[in-house]
Specification:
Shape: flat
Radius of gyration: 21 Å
Number of domains: 2
Number of helices: 10
Largest sheet: none
């Protein structure tokens, strides 16, 4: 059976799954930014208690399309998992990658269901929603990381090993943790922009520093600070990684470190523009897209660092 499966096709399918996941995530941001999370009421997985709902408002269409895209993503991942398990032997890391992708896809849907069923959508700004959204955003990053590693392993990338250099390990771990904190704070800031839209930049700044502002607004104030510190840390850490990385991984390190630095600059500029023009939906989607691509390239950078330790040290 293995001879009948083209490894290049499986690799391309893994890339397709990663791209589709990014598309689903971006459409999910449209659902949140447009206030369409309650477009199907509190029903899940059906939309308004119907398999195919009657579309009377745009919010229902937006939410229903998001659920359809999620279903298509699941079908694609099932096909990928079947092929990966048939093509690769036991203990091959590609099996782990696709299994983790399936798991985090399931938890992603579960967390989405929690938001809908418990009505943590639309204008709900409760602490429960903040916690659920933070968990949802973290799970999304884990899902993308798993899908990216599946691409890495189906493309012939070696299994990951802890580096012999403690400095390299902590730099890689620090980059990943900093990126997670940045993405979660950005997601909560975007949620605040949706629930408490500003009518001008001065109005937004006044609301941000008001002592009576809601919790989400106070959290939004910290996002630019976190973004500045995180981007500075990521760029410094990547430059240090380039300096001490093992020679056997330098080709990949050069490629992905350059991409990470470029995307850090693009993300920071996009965030500044997003702030100036008061976060319209299209700009929020662009901002999120750059963040997703940055995260994926960071995963590839870390994978290239941890993949060839035996031959390089």
């Amino acid at each position: 059976m293995q001879k009948l499966i083209n490894p290049k096709f499986v690799y391309r399918l893994a890339w397709a799954a990663l791209v589709v996941n990014v598309a689903v995530i971006l459409w999910g941001s449209v659902v949140r930014a447009s206030g369409s999370g309650a477009g199907c009421g509190d029903h899940w997985p059906l939309c308004g208690s119907h398999l195919i709902p009657t579309i009377r408002v745009v919010a229902t269409l937006i939410e229903f399309l998001h659920r359809l895209s999620t279903g298509a993503d699941v079908i694609l991942l099932i096909a990928l998992a079947v092929l990966v398990y048939k093509l690769f032997p036991r203990r091959h890391p590609a099996r782990l990658g696709v299994s983790l992708t399936m798991f985090f896809t399931f938890t992603e849907a579960l967390l989405g269901a929690v938001l809908v069923i418990f009505k943590l959508v639309d204008r709900n700004a409760s602490l429960a929603r903040i916690i659920a959204e933070a968990a949802h955003l973290t799970n999304t990053l884990l899902l993308l990381a798993s899908a990216a590693l599946t691409v890495w392993w189906t493309g012939g990338g070696p299994a990951l090993r802890k580096p012999k250099s403690p400095a390299l390990f902590w730099l890689a771990a620090g980059c990943l943790l900093a990126a997670v904190v940045l993405c979660v704070s950005g997601g909560l800031a975007a949620l605040a922009d949706t629930i408490y839209p500003a009518h001008g930049l001065l109005d937004s700044l006044h609301l941000d520093f008001s002592s009576s502002a809601p919790l989400l607004i106070h959290l939004r104030v910290w996002h630019p600070v976190i973004a500045t510190l995180t981007v500075a840390f990521l760029m410094a850490a990547v430059l240090q990684i380039k300096r001490i990385a093992p020679q056997g991984s330098m080709a990949n390190v050069q490629t992905y470190s350059g991409m990470v630095i470029l995307l850090c600059v693009m993300e920071y500029c996009a965030g500044f523009l997003n702030l100036l023009i008061l976060a319209p939906i299209w700009m929020q989607v662009c901002h999120l897209f750059i963040a997703d691509v940055l995260w994926i390239n960071l995963i590839f950078l870390v994978a290239s660092l941890l993949a060839q330790q035996d031959s390089t040290q």
